[in-house]
Amino acid sequence: MANADIKLKIPSAVFYIDPVRAFIGNLAKNLGFSRKRVADIQLVIDEICSNAVHHGSIDATVGVELQIRSSAHALEILVRDTGSRHKGKKNWLTHERLSEIETNRSPSNEGGHGIFIAKSLSDTYKMEINATGGTDVRVVFQLLKPADTKP
After folding, report:
1. What is the rounded CA–CA span in Å between residue 66 and residue 77?
2. What is the per-residue pLDDT across 85-126, written as a single tens digit (0 to 9) for each?
3. Alpha helices (H) in the chain, listed in sequence order
4. What is the pLDDT of residues 34-76, one digit of tens each?
């Protein structure tokens, strides 16, 4: 499959995450990722997009942007939210807030696992504040060919 750069923009509503998840799953499958790895990629995208919708772009009209780059060796996905448009409300991404989420993450808590899942299942994970005051989360999944896995 040839290299591709794909840009998507969805409203900030949970309803739109499932079609994005399905699209990226089909793309990963066509790129040659294993069925298990496709499921991992879809789970990571689900978690990142859910965080963007619930914590980032609070106004559904503003939306969440995705930039997807595929090549023969990797699938790179950037999920960008715009942050809160409410005066005085801080962006959810702060070092203190991330430390609090990591410290309080436990199997008995329903929330707080998305960042951990994304970090654990992606080959590269990077989260940073963007120019609009929102959050950019970039994940990369390397495509290993059978010859790459031999000792």
Report:
1. 7
2. 554 455 555 555 555 556 555 555 555 567 888 888 999 999
3. 17-31, 35-51, 95-104, 114-121
4. 999 999 999 999 999 988 888 777 667 778 999 999 998 999 9
Count other Cβ atoms within 10 Å, centred on residue 76: 18
Q: For domain 4-149, give its CATH number from 3.40.50.1110, 3.100.10.10, 3.10.20.30, 3.30.565.10.
A: 3.30.565.10
The answer to whether the predicted template modeling score (pTM) of the entire model surpasses 0.85 is no
**Which residue has tokens 């329903």?**
110
Tokens at 6, concatenated: 């794909």
Asked if 136 and 127 touch (Cβ cutoff 8 Å), the reply is yes
Side chain identity at residue 58, one-letter code: I
> Both tokens of residue 117?
């899942």
Residues 6+ apart with CB under 8 A from 122: 44, 139, 140, 141
Q: For residues 85 and 63, is the Cβ–Cβ distance under 8 A? A: no
